[in-house]
Hints:
Helix content is 31%, strand content 20%. The protein contains 12 helices and 16 strands. α5 (90-106) packs across α9 and α6 packs across α9. This is Gibberellin 2-beta-dioxygenase 8.
Amino acid sequence: MYLSxxxxxxxxxxxxxxxxxxxxxxxxFITELNQPLNMATDPPFHQAYKSLIEDTSNNIxxxxxxxxxxxxxxxxxxxRILHNDxxxxxxxxxxxxxxxxxxxxxxxxxQVTNHGISKDLLEKMREEQVKVFKQPFDKxxxxxxxxxxxxxxxxxxxxxATCLNQLSWSEAFHIPMADISxxxxxxxxxxxxxxxxxxxVAGLARKLTAILAEKLGRESTFFQENCLPSTCYLxxxxxxxxxxxxxxxxxMPHTDSDFLTILHQDEVGGLQLVKDGKWIAVKPNPEALIxxxxxxxxxxxxxxxxxxxxxxxxxxxxxxxxxxxxxxxxYDTVIQNSEPSNYRKFSFREFRLQVQEDVQKYGHxxxxxxxxxxx
Length: 375
């Protein structure tokens, strides 16, 4: 299977820690792309996209160098809301909630520290993730026998790509929460680590969404009732080195089709997002988790909170790892808000189907504009 170009549940991210990041230029595009990767473990990008690469390679010659500024996302210390009431002053608790809501409105992204996920657990999760991706490609592509994950869990590339800008140079395991405990006996350490990580991050997602609902003056039990463990997902990502990082994304530009995404990434970097109409590179912070608003929350909040376009850029020499938790509702959950609303009422199922249809037809997601009401 390929990594779906449909960015249903996606977060993430870019280059080493450059203050400026080079985004375009290659004199020997075809030659570089034909250099062998680690053929034992890497997906066969070169073979699968040979015709696409050859058909479009001339289009990148002569393009100018693009520099992307690096920035630090808003950083929020969650110890003010995660400690017991008798430890933190109520004014500090409210200040923290305001910071979360403000970052969600102005950035759509923020970082959190003192988030309740231990350093030991994050390190163990990364170790297990690396072990899985270092398995031979032939084994990973038969994930139903490899780890007892459901068919289609392992994805790589972009099957719907019609040009290089639509190609994602990455591989991933997209795992429904309900299927984590079913992983194979040979990977019991991975299974238990995934389950522990997912359970802990799910608690954080519930806490954050309840705060964001509260700041809107809306009923926070909506998420408890509609976003159950069985409806959420984890995705383990690996971005192999790419011979021409200036021309191919690790993950193409997209927004996330969920309520909230929580990401843990390594220190390689790669995440870029749109702020004030331009791309900026996110500086990695090893102590923090990254949180971003998804399409459903933007619609549910009537555009108060922003689902921001983001992408992952590739690295010419260093692989990158990340793991994302996608806080999703059941397919029958209806997304609506009080009048006057910017969006018509729609179900999560309807949204997903529309995204899939657009990706198949246009090669990319259209998303929320499909559901806008013309006033």
